[in-house]
Amino acid sequence: MHFTWDDENIEHLASHGVRPEEAEEVVTHASTVILPARPPRFCAYGVTDENRPLRVIYDQGAEGIRVTTAYRIRRVLLARIRKEAEL
């Protein structure tokens, strides 16, 4: 998976206390739940390697994956999303 990073999305993630590496960890983790949003956008719900629960919103296209935002979510929300994804 190829991620596209520039000053704009790196700074935006930083404003939410998220590093680009953390967003990549969530998007690529096997236990992450990925839900479609408005095309070509997706929402990834998962945890970083340090077990921080995050929601990562990204666009996927020919250029690869461009994260538009990411922020911490509550563990109860992540658990609910994972449970609903199993249905």
Q: Please tally the helical runs, counting DSSP H or I stretches of 4 or more residues.
A: 3
Straight-line N-to-C gap: 27 Å
Strand order of the largest sheet: 1-2-3-4
Number of strands: 4
Helix fraction by DSSP (H/I, runs of at least 4):
25-40%
| Radius of gyration from the alpha-carbon trace, in angstroms | 12 Å
Mean pLDDT: 95
Structural class: alpha+beta
Helix-strand string: HHEEEEH
- In total, the number of domains comes to 1
Largest sheet: 4 strands, antiparallel
Which consecutive residue ranges, at least 5 long each, have pLDDT under 50? Answer: none
Strand content is 25-35%
Q: Looking at the structure, what is the overall shape?
A: globular
Describe this structure in words.
With 87 residues, the chain is an alpha+beta fold. The chain has one domain. 34% of the residues lie in helices and 33% in strands. The protein has a four-stranded antiparallel sheet with strand order 1-2-3-4. Strand 2 and strand 3 (53-61) form a beta hairpin. The radius of gyration is 12 Å and the shape is globular. The N and C termini lie far apart (27 Å). The mean pLDDT is 95.
